[in-house]
Amino acid sequence: MLARMWRTLTAASLVVSLPAFGLAVTAPAQAADGLTITVVNNNPAYRSDQVFVAGTGNGSGAGSASLAQRSSFTTTGLSSGRVWVSLGKPLTTTPAPSPDTSDTRFDVVELTYPGVANLTAVDMFGIPMDIESFDSSGHLVGSKKWGCYTDKIQQAMQAKLGASGGKYSNTVRTDPNGNFLRLVSPNIVSGAHPSGYPRFDAYVKGLRGQQLTIRGHAMGQDYRYTGSFAADPSDPSGPGSLTLTDQSASHLQQMYVKGSSLVGNAGNETAGIYGNNSPYYIGGHLHSGNDVYGAVYRDLVAGFAYGFWGSPSYGNDSGRFNVSAAPGPFEAAQPNAVNYNPWAAALWPLTDAYGFPYGDTYNDDAARNPIVQLPTNGTLKITIDPDVSPTGCGSPPTPTPTPTPTRTSTPT
């Protein structure tokens, strides 16, 4: 999947229509080999010379240039790429400005070409942007959008965190004049900026003694793990730990996940439910890999983030988890408690963007899956939306969803 934290672009080539940066010049308006990326500004608060766009690649690429100078560029091949958009001034710390501390308002679109593109709010929300993918003939292939913009997103996050016992003010970043820069997700926590998000101790502890079933297929292997959270002598202050045993014909090794590694969100602790990246053990050994065990772990933590585990409607069998199956994830799955990722929940009705790293898990509906396909020699159009939402805004429009990727692919 694409939505991982601030990856580096490894581009085969990045051709930018701006000779001032010493790069090869192309004319995006003409037929060209590769993907043409075009940026359009619909935010009336910023002139074209106040909107800056950059493409990063393999440690170098296109420096930030205003839309008055350049509105498109072309790439012939890249992986884990980013198009950076900043408002008011160019980014000075590319390829990785900090969502926690940067004094520039920015956001990104993630893409791999050939391949797919996506909007991401895994780490932050800074600028509402839409993406549309067109084939080489100019026909729309797919789109992913924000249904509401900055004002409503702030309101939704404030309401969700207020209801869940969080602290909204800890999630807001402003410039020295108090102007909005971004909201940060549970993934962005530091000593200078404590988390504004609630813990999940009660959620995990409430599942003690209940059998969980995680089943699926990945890397050519079936898996059907079962197990229950239980008191853990090696983690006496934790909410309980989970031991999983494979019941499938694959006879995979036993898995162990310490409960305390899942529930927190402080800068000095792991945050498996929020960050989807806590340690787990296979056959008694610490494990991390792009393999079938990684897929099982993904299914476990994504189920927590969506609120599926222990839901009155979905139960404790991952084979029943689907964001498009009624009643739906988050508060619909957990009507009696905030047993889900409140950041992702607040964004869910408003955007097609990734809300957490495994936001494409249990998400086989093409209209809700976060990615769009990028056709050969096509165009990716990025539109910068206003900060003020239209009257009656709501669910993001996705009139032409692209085919859904295979669900069983494991995280990278």
Q: In short, what is this structure?
A:
The chain is of the alpha+beta class and 412 residues long.
Description of the structure:
By secondary structure, the protein is α+β, with helices and mostly antiparallel strands. The protein has 6 helices and 21 strands. Strands 1, 2, 3, 4, 5, 6, 7, 9, 10, 20 and 21 form an 11-stranded mixed β-sheet that branches. It starts with 9 loop residues before the first strand and ends in a 28-residue tail after the last strand. Helix content is 12%, strand content 29%. β18 (280-282) and β19 (285-287) form a beta hairpin. It is globular and about 60 Å long. Residues 1-31 and 398-412 have low confidence and may be disordered. The relative contact order is 0.17. It has 2 domains: 1-196 and 346-412, Thaumatin (Sandwich), CATH 2.60.110; 201-337, no CATH class. The chain has helices spanning 150-164, 201-205, 260-263, 272-275, 292-306, 342-347, and strands spanning 10-16, 35-41, 51-57, 60-66, 72-87, 105-113, 115-119, 124-125, 129-134, 140-144, 172-174, 180-184, 212-218, 221-227, 229-230, 241-246, 255-257, 280-282, 285-287, 371-374, 379-384.
